[in-house]
Amino acid sequence: MIKWVSIFCSVIYVLATTSLAEVLKMPVFIEHAMEYQGSFAEFLLEHYDNHEEDEDWATDQQLPFINPPSVLMVHAQIPETIFHIEKLPEMITSSKILFYHDKDFSGLYLSRIFQPPRFC
Predict the structure, then answer these.
(1) Which of 1, 36, 86, 88 has the most crowded CB, counting CB atoms within 10 A?
(2) For 63, which DSSP code?
(3) Cβ atoms within 10 A of the Cβ of 9, count?
(4) Alpha-carbon distance 39 to 34, whole Å?
(5) Of 81, 80, 46, the residue nearest 63 (C-alpha)
(6) Positive or negative, the Cα torsion across 32, 35, 41, 45?
(7) 63-112: pLDDT as tens digits
(8) Is 94 exposed, middle or buried (0-12, 13-18, 19+ CB in 10 A)?
(9) pTM (2 decimals)?
(10) How far apart are CA 64 and CA 29, in angstroms?
(11) Residue 87: phi, psi to the nearest 5?
């Protein structure tokens, strides 16, 4: 039962996220992959990684996701950023140097906090 539910959900997801025209091109993809003289990985690399025009160019253009519809294209624009670097006014600091002195702080309270357990 779980297997059929997962298959159903997968099919619904694929149909919702891809164009039906691209799904209908799958038989052309399978047929062209079977005619290819090489491994399936080589087929994918040759046809989907900067494919150049060759003798079966017309068939290659019918493969799914080769020419996606313009509806699927996303246009992203980086907003123009303008930087202004301003010189900060010079700050005058006091020449008095502050140091930490042990005599200013008592460590006696530490002996009260960290004690061995009373009951063993």
Answers:
(1) 36
(2) S
(3) 10
(4) 9
(5) 46
(6) negative
(7) 888 876 665 556 678 888 888 888 888 877 766 666 666 565 566 666 66
(8) exposed
(9) 0.44
(10) 7
(11) -80, 125
